[in-house]
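User: I'm writing a short methods note and want a consistent example. For Ankyrin repeat-containing protein P16F5.05c, I'll paste the sequence; you return only the structure tokens, no commentary, since I'll be parsing the reply automatically.
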Amino acid sequence: MSLSIPSSEDLEELLLSCRYGDVEDIQQFIDRFGPDALNSARDDGGNSVLHMVAGNGHTEALDYLLPLVSPSLLSAQNDAKSTPLHWAALNSHLAIAQKLVRFPSGPGVDLIDIKNAAGRSSLGEAENVGWDEGAKWFVEVMNLEEGANGEEELQVPESGEGIEVEIQDADGQVAKMTIGQKNSPSLSSDGPPQT
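Assistant:
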């Protein structure tokens, strides 16, 4: 059976189906045109099928699409350089963000570091919209070490000493925290940890 090539109207309908999470219509598109046609579908703003399902929180559609699309589509940027993960963060869709980052064939936690045209990562977008739950999850799973190649030796503090951690957000603000002291850890955004 030979598959036909989708018209611009077919692609537009596919993107609308993804936007509204209509898995049945997405399946019909694939039956007609094959899964490879999913990879090239873009709207006028450069948004892909994954941008549409991620931005609108459609987990069932995402679960259906992820094994069918090219893994490179997870890090595909639209005209504003935002990835599907940026859209999930902008709209506070934790389950979607987790599925995108955890997809075995995808880029993993490196997705979090991709910056859009505004200079913000997905973590930065989560912070920008006040989505604390998502920002917390991004920080928990992301690679926070700049030289994360295993060359640095882990130094274990002596008993009673704390480990000072600095985390910089997308706006350049630095939060410092001391972990492991006998006193409770404290946070500071402009000076050394308070004890």
